[in-house]
Amino acid sequence: MQEVNAYGAYMGDKLLEPMRITRRAPGAHDVQIDIAFCGVCHSDLHQVRAEWAGTHFPCVPGHEIVGRVSAAGAQVSGFKPGDLVGVGCIVDSCKHCPECEAGLENYCDHMVGTYNGPTPDAPGWTLGGYSQKIVVHQRYVLRIRHPQEQLAAVAPLLCAGITTYSPLRHWHVGPGMKVGVVGIGGLGHMGIKLAHAMGAHVVAFTTSESKRAAARALGADDVVVSRNAGEMAAHANSFDFILDTVAAPHSLDALLALLKRDGALTLVGAPAAPHPSPEVFNLIFKRRTIAGSLIGGIPETQEMLDFCAERGIVADIELIRADQINTAYERMLKSDVKYRFVIDNASLAALAPVAGKPHGA
Ligand code: NAP
Ligand code: ZN
Description:
Elements: E1 2-8, E2 17-23, E3 30-39, H1 42-48, E4 65-72, E5 84-87, E6 90-92, H2 98-101, E7 112-113, E8 133-137, E9 142-143, H3 151-154, H4 160-170, E10 178-182, H5 186-197, E11 201-206, H6 212-218, E12 222-225, H7 229-233, E13 239-244, H8 253-256, E14 259-267, H9 281-284, E15 289-292, H10 298-311, E16 317-320, H11 325-333, E17 340-344
Helix pairs in contact: 4-5, 4-10
């Protein structure tokens, strides 16, 4: 066991602050990682503010982790100290159910999230990547083939990248398809880059007029400001696939009306409150589908990382210190980030928790 510095919250209505946490000594199958950078996902905010049910405190968020291996257990094959690696949203699963055997650990009933998931380690739930080190079973560790200089911008691929890549692949996005990406935040900006790289005609949907030009630079062929009904109507019945990454409840009808026959609207945004139920006639008249998708499995995450490394694809990021996280959350809520905050975990070394506050208080 070892103590490391971390940044997290003691309650859902409290700001994040420095804390000390323990990490287990690496077991035979474990990889210990010195975390270099950790992306800031909107899910971190939902969880740490207890917007989703069941948050355990203290909560240390962070599931877009990149760094270097600093120790490996005796049974670890394929990773050695010094290797550049990543960890995404999953740190364990049952390993033998049909989902795990298919490499779809994300759909295992016993999938353990990188934070807030059950673990025998103290304090009884997992603590995430806003910390100096993490110890993870080798099955859930990813190899990073991007150059070291890009490492900070690779971090968001571990959640935002795979969460958009997986549905784009599942719905066979490629040349000749018209694809919409709704919400140009952390997930959405990766969705645009990836759908463009897969050869689709990509249309970005944003509520922010200020992102119109920027979305084209990400690879969008067209940009629609979704508050503008006229712009929306011009695309009626024309999309094969729309990926909705929005983090807040909103009407799905305006998006469904843009799908052509047999088109699919896939939701990856996970707002704390439900979307209003869509109008059924919007579905039946063109045999349209509404679906959902959760991150991606470990083999597909490696496939996505390699796809991005081969094409030089990384996230557009704003690098912050750990003690800037509370401000970053407020800016994320205002859609004021292009497009992902990433914590420089080296900044944790200088941060000490408030004296006298016991671990887990
Ligand atoms: P984000 O960076 O905050 O981006 C969300 C974007 O949604 C914003 O940038 C904004 O884009 C748009 N938006 C925000 N509020 C809106 C509103 N009221 N109406 C319409 N559009 C709005 O968040 P993120 O990290 O990409 O995460 C997005 C969601 O996906 C979160 O709910 C997160 O928990 C969830 N998530 C799900 C999975 C999964 O496996 N399914 C994985 C990771 C994250 P514009 O400014 O362009 O409008
Ligand atoms: Zn995430």
